[in-house]
Specification:
28% helix; 10 helices; EC 2.4.1.-
């Protein structure tokens, strides 16, 4: 056989082998698909919304509404009622579903119980056993002097709501720092030197200290009295204007306890009047307000010395105005109502706490904490 024929024969064999290999490859590709390790992400499925946008079924642009925790107000404090929507409109608090509907007890995340509404036989408490997830909140804005111990409730409550700064839920209307210095504050027009509004003057409430001081002070300076204890009760709408018309206001607490600094102090601050305070030590007040925003009775050896100082400030306008220098840096917000005003803020503060703190908390001895 010639070399040319041999070459042709070899080429033919190679061509056949290539053809067979190609055919086998095609068959394998047809019947077997290897796993894909780097697939592109699955395209989202959309549906048309009425506003022309598209909604991703897997990751909707419309946020799912988060269910709010339920706070049940077991009883209205001293039967004082307000619109439940006030927490949103007044304090911009809207984190919980606030209700007084006891039918929602078993589904309520927390129950707010007013101390003075608890009967001695405990029959006015919510039913037990409570749901395992539920927290009970003890609401008491009175001082220990004016708080009656009720046996059997010491270890019932998970949370305390009080004026005390070390409460689980401290409640207080606080000064706010101005973002920029305020140069526009104007001291209201004054036509009275010293004023005092008193609605309760019963000895059993612990007012003996403030009454003693007042009776001594009035010997040396005129005090304009308002309120049902000494004079005619003021209408709510006259409360702040009356305080604003006085250069000084007697912010005398009915009893002296740590952190027991009430609206009697915040009222004149917000109205543009200098508070003259009788209560816990000056250092305690300075936790909540600048030291030069008020006058403390403890700064003077006796009531006569205080009266002389107030009379001196009445004659020295520049010295008096220095008690308002803090207004450049802070603002004082008044309570929006007068009677039982602390209850609105307390209830709304509880709502805010329940919304922000979902964790469970063990019950603890409220009396050991509050009375000691």
């Amino acid at each position: 056989m010639s070399s040319t024929s041999s070459t042709r024969t070899l080429f033919g064999h190679l061509t056949g082998i290539v053809a067979i290999a190609s055919l086998v490859s095609l068959i394998l590709l047809y019947f077997w698909t290897p796993p894909v390790t780097n697939c592109p992400p699955r395209l989202p499925q959309f549906k048309q919304l009425s506003d022309g946008h598209h909604e991703d079924k897997n990751n909707s642009i419309a946020e799912e509404k988060v269910e709010k925790p339920v706070l049940l107000l077991w009883v209205w404090p001293q039967n004082y009622r307000f619109e439940l929507s006030d927490c949103k409109s007044i304090y911009n608090i809207d984190g919980c579903h606030l209700t007084d509907d006891r039918a929602l007890y078993n589904s309520s995340d927390a129950v707010l119980v007013f101390h003075r509404a608890i009967s001695q036989d405990l029959s006015t408490l919510p039913p037990s056993p409570r749901p395992s997830f539920q927290k009970w909140i003890w609401l008491n804005v009175e001082s220990p002097t004016n708080t009656q111990k009720i046996p059997g409730i010491e270890n019932l409550f998970n949370l305390t709501l009080s004026y005390r700064e070390d409460a689980d839920i401290p409640v207080r209307l606080r000064l706010t720092r101005n973002k920029t210095p305020n140069e526009d504050f104007t001291i209201p027009k004054k036509d009275k030197l010293v004023c005092w509004i008193v609605s309760n003057n019963l000895d059993w409430t612990g007012v003996g200290t403030r009454n003693t001081y007042y009776n001594e002070l009035k010997k040396y300076i005129t005090v304009h009295m308002f309120g049902s204890a000494y004079a005619k009760r003021l209408a709510d709408e006259d409360y702040y204007p009356t305080i604003a018309s006085c250069k000084f206001y007697l912010s005398f607490e009915n009893s002296i306890h740590k952190d027991y600094i009430t609206e009697k102090f915040n009222g004149p601050l917000s109205a543009g009047t200098v508070p003259v305070v009788l209560g816990p030590p000056r250092k305690n007040y300075e936790r909540f307000a600048p030291r030069d925003s008020f006058i403390h009775v403890d700064d003077f050896p006796d009531a006569k010395s205080l009266a002389e100082y107030l009379t001196q400030l009445d004659r020295d306008e520049d010295a008096y105005r220095r008690y308002f220098n803090w207004r450049r840096h802070f603002s004082a917000r008044p309570h929006l109502i007068v009677q039982n005003q602390e209850f609105v803020l307390s209830i709304c503060t509880a709502c805010d706490h329940v919304a922000k703190h979902k964790e469970y908390q063990e019950a603890h001895d409220i009396y050991e904490w509050f009375f000691n």
